[in-house]
Amino acid sequence: TLADGAVWSDGEPIDCDDAMLVWAARSGTYTTGEKDADGNDVPLFSAAATNGYDVMDKPDCVDGDTAWTVTYSEPYADWQAQFAGTEILPAHIVEEQAGGIDLVDAVTNDDQEALAAAAEFYNTGWVFNPGELDPALTPSSGPYMLDSWQAGQSISLVANDQWWGPAPKAGTVVVRFIEQEAQAQALANNEIQIAEPQPNPDVVSQLEGLGDQVEILTGDEYTYEHWDYNFAKFFKDERIREAFTKCIPRQTIVDNLIVPVNPNAVVQNLRNVQPFQSNYEDIVATAYDGAYDEPDVAGAKALLEEAGAVGQTVRIAYQTPNQRRTNEVDLIRDSCNQAGFDVQDAGQDDFFGNGLAAGNFDIAEFAWAGSPLVSGWADIYVTNGGSNFGNYSNPEIDDLVNTLNTTPDVDEQNDLIAQIEKILWDDNATIPGFTFPGVTAHASNVTGVVRQPAQSQVSWNMQEWDLTDG
Q1: Rounded to an integer, what distance in angstroms lies between the CA atom of residue 165 and that of residue 185?
Q2: Distances 73 to 54, 58, 154, 406 between C-alpha atoms, Å
Q3: Per DSSP, what are the bridge partners of residue 432?
Q4: Alpha-carbon distance values, 172 to 141, 146, 161, 169, 465 (Å)
Q5: How far, in Å, CA of 43 to CA of 123, rounded?
Q6: Most C-beta atoms within 10 A of its C-beta, which of 201, 236, 408, 425?
Q7: Are the CB atoms for 123 and 43 separated by under 8 Å?
Q8: Do 193 and 187 form a contact (C-beta atoms < 8 A)?
Q9: Average per-residue pLDDT for the chain
């Protein structure tokens, strides 16, 4: 059920059409009629994942309804998170751009022609070239709306006068793109009022040096660093994966790069459960035997020799600039080159735009921003998952993740997660590093800034931000 008075920023009501678009795009029901290289049906709509919606019947509603009922063909663990605000996109824009179709009618009657027109815009119409923005195509359902975009510099948001909740306190919020090493100075110069850099000892030291000019907020986040192997390349050999896992100096990385930001930081030994969660220790006790707590260079070297891969070049790719990750690669190189690898820094300024999805890496070094939800496993680790960039595949994982998604009982979930984690360790599919120690700093004359650990990060309550006279 939608909030009373919920409308898009252009005044169009949020209603059944929007629910139908979410379902059509996320359920995987509609296909192009073609097959991909693996013989799978090509989906009509581009979606990162279908989990949850793929076991959901069409929303039961008609034009203008602001509430709808859905029925699941089997239980879905994270049902409460479906139709989230980030998933609801403006259906009336799709309808208009698709030639005036009616999405409720198209979905209700499985009108393939109308749905194909909708999908064509849905898949490409909101992809803008840098600096180009058409606010008419991007109405907002939140307290702010897009106003302008200076490529490589900033995105400006302005208050949404159609917002049905309390009016935002700041009329304009400008999101600046500044290298993290320059953020402290930008705060000192009042060029920005809020900064949320990645954890980095140097940046934290700079922020602390500003004294009472700023307030610094810290705490763990549902975000963790990890290293993903590319199974489409030489890492498909399990001996080479195990060898590299043996030489990654995870404890040294945490001690040198994370402890200075968070003195209580520990090496993370699970993927989708963080050390600060109550179920973490019990799952670790079942899933991980401590085999990779410390580097075993000799053991890594022996495996590499057995595989006939001494001297193997390993390109570790990540988004640049990021000094902490550059330092991570340096520490890994220092350790793994002793085992016979040739580790190379393959940092890319377009890593997320091209490198990761294109498989342009041997190891991908990045972080997943998550939540307590269990359905996040589905598109990362299952065969052909939308975010399975390393091409990992294990039928046991596929089955367990599917069972996890259909298991609402928390105790049963924990047992399944432990089984999944153990297999991921046995396969050396992806290696966890550490939980991000979140760092948010804001000018002392800014009020309303509240950090929180989920992926929306500091922006979650920007409508509460305000400047005092100080």
Answers
A1: 35
A2: 9, 11, 45, 10
A3: 226
A4: 16, 10, 12, 9, 10
A5: 11
A6: 425
A7: no
A8: yes
A9: 94
pLDDT for residue 314: 98
On whether the CB atoms of residues 276 and 434 are closer than 8 A, the answer is: no
Instruction: State both tokens at 133.
Output: 């923005």
The lowest-confidence range among 157-161, 209-213, 383-387 is: 383-387
Beta strand 214-229 with 430-443 is: antiparallel
Q: Which amino acid is at 333?
A: R
Regarding beta strands 342-345 and 446-447, do their DSSP bridges make them parallel or antiparallel, or are they unpaired?
Answer: unpaired
225 touches 430 (CB < 8 A): no
Give DSSP secondary structure letters for 30-91: -EEEEE-TTSPEEESS--S--TTGGGBPPPB--TT-S--B--BSS--TTGGGTT-TTT---H
Query: In sequence order, what are the beta bridge partners of 315?
Result: 344
Q: Which residues pair with 176 in a beta bridge?
A: 154
Confidence bin at 188 (pLDDT 50/70/90): very high
Measured CA distances, 230 to 19, 60, 239 (Å): 37, 42, 14
Question: What is the helix (H) or strand (E) element at residue 223, kind and residue range?
Answer: strand 214-229
Q: Which residue has the tokens 């309804």?
A: 65
Q: Determine the length of the chain.
A: 470
- How buried is residue 353: exposed, middle or buried, by Cβ count under 10 Å (0-12/13-18/19+)? exposed
The token pair that represents 302 in the structure block:
């022996």
pLDDT at 470: 52
Amino acid letter, 200 = N
Q: How far is CA 426 from the centre of its chain?
A: 25
